[in-house]
């Protein structure tokens, strides 16, 4: 065994002995506290039983000098009780002295973690939180506030580390303490210093007048927005005043709703054109056309829409010619009858396309609207590549001239070999029997995997090209 290994083993052994000694000291203090309580009760009982002074006997027994002595038997009893009380007092003093000694040793002990430089502790704190741009809750066990509740030194380090406060998640509901929540938001914004912010504000059933102060507080820091997700009532949003030099991603409920929120301030409708880094947009709903001029569509490289009618896809995608990653959750209502589908202009840069159907209805020939020369990864619900899924995929590859590397089919009912035989050049396949569940605003839940033993593929939230 090497000397370094011997040294490491010795250090671990000493550390283990230190921990055992500390644990033994704490245990002994708890035991002493119990004994002190028991002896104090016994002493009180003796004093009450003989009507002795509450100050207790002196060590020389002088407390009994002035006691009346009508009979010698009573005097003997008092002397006996006095001696017992003196013993109890002496035992209490000894126990308290031992406790003070042990507590002093514990107080003087310096935990190894507290000997680390503040810079190292600060870095550990940052890594404790979700990786930016994911934002932790503003309160709770996984929030930065919890780090300031351990000890004074950790609180000082947490308060002096702006990166801890750059991610903010607020989930409001009608039962929220709005005053306290707004105070926490203001505090986090102040503590984040000059850091770029990742903010997520989600409101469920909250009146616009309650949400407006939170939106105003967030808007006051718009120059530091790095990632913004708003699920708020339309009337709660105000005009954006100022440039957005750091904004990289934006999530909003509805483009139409957001545009109407700013319609009273014409200059604000192009506010996001002042965001040179904005490349990712997530829309919960996109139901209407034509497109608003709110966003710089041609600069977007990532687009996620969680609810879109098939006839709206072409208009939206034709405006986003620079896309590299696209995920669409398509809602098709068979009761509305067949829809006229326009072709999408070839998306020359799109490498990943995910098409998820909301509901089990078959949408025939939907895949025919796409031409994707750069496509490498493709995922689709089988209902969206009907009536002949294998033929539709072959036609897409031939029409696009793409070299597809990875394929995932959800809601699959066909034998796996049909896909493999149709596309032998694809290296990775993955199949899921169940339909995709309806996605929430900030994420999409997936059904259980059902692989056929081949190479696995999972194109989902983890593949979203927005991690920093």
From TrEMBL:
Start-end of Acidic residues biased regions: 446-468
Organism: Mycena maculata
Highest classification ranks of the organism: Eukaryota, Fungi, Dikarya, Basidiomycota, Agaricomycotina
Name under which the protein is recorded: F-box domain-containing protein
Chain intervals for the UniProt region annotation (Disordered): 47-71, 443-468
Domain of life of the organism encoding this protein: Eukaryota
């Amino acid at each position: 065994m090497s000397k370094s290994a011997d040294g490491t083993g010795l250090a671990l052994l000493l550390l283990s002995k230190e921990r055992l000694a500390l644990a033994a000291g704490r245990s002994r203090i708890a035991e002493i506290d119990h004994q002190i309580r028991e002896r104090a009760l016994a002493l009180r009982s003796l004093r009450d039983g003989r009507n002795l002074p509450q100050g207790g006997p002196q060590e020389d027994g002088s407390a009994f000098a002035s006691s009346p002595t009508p009979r010698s038997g009573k005097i003997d009893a008092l002397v006996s009780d006095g001696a017992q009380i003196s013993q109890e007092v002496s035992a209490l003093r000894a126990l308290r002295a031992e406790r003070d000694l042990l507590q002093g040793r514990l107080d003087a002990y310096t935990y190894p973690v507290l000997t680390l430089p503040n810079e190292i502790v600060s870095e550990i704190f940052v890594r404790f939180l979700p990786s930016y741009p994911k934002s932790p809750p503003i309160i709770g066990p996984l929030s930065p506030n919890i780090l300031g509740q351990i000890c004074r030194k950790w609180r000082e380090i947490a308060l002096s580390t702006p990166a801890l406060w750059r991610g903010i998640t607020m989930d409001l509901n009608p039962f929220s303490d709005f005053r306290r929540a707004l105070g926490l938001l203001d505090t986090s914004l102040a503590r984040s210093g000059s850091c770029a912010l990742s903010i997520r504000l989600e409101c469920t059933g909250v009146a616009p007048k309650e949400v407006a102060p939170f939106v105003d507080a967030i808007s006051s820091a718009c120059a530091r927005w790095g990632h913004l997700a708003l699920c708020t009532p339309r009337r709660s949003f105000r005009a954006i005043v100022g440039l957005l030099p750091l904004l990289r991603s934006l999530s909003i409920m509805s483009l139409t709703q957001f545009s109407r929120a700013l319609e009273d301030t014409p200059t604000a409708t192009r506010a996001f054109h002042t965001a040179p880094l904005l490349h990712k947009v997530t829309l919960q709903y996109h139901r209407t056309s034509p497109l608003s001029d709110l966003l710089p569509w041609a600069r977007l490289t990532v687009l996620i829409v969680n609810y879109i009618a098939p006839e709206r896809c072409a208009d939206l995608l034709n405006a986003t010619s620079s896309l590299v990653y696209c995920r669409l959750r398509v809602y098709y209502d068979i009761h509305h009858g067949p829809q006229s589908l326009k072709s999408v202009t070839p998306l020359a840069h799109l490498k990943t396309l995910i098409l998820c159907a909301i509901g089990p209805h078959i949408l025939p020939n939907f895949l025919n609207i796409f031409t994707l020369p750069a496509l490498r990864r493709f995922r689709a619900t089988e209902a969206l590549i009907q009536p002949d899924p294998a033929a539709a995929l072959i036609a897409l590859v031939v029409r696009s001239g793409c070299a597809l590397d990875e394929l995932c089919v959800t809601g699959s009912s066909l034998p796996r070999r049909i896909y493999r035989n149709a596309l032998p050049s694809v290296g990775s396949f993955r199949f899921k029997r169940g339909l995709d569940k309806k996605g929430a605003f900030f994420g999409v839940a997936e059904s259980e995997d059902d692989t056929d033993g081949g190479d696995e593929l999972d194109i989902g939230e983890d593949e979203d090209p927005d991690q920093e």
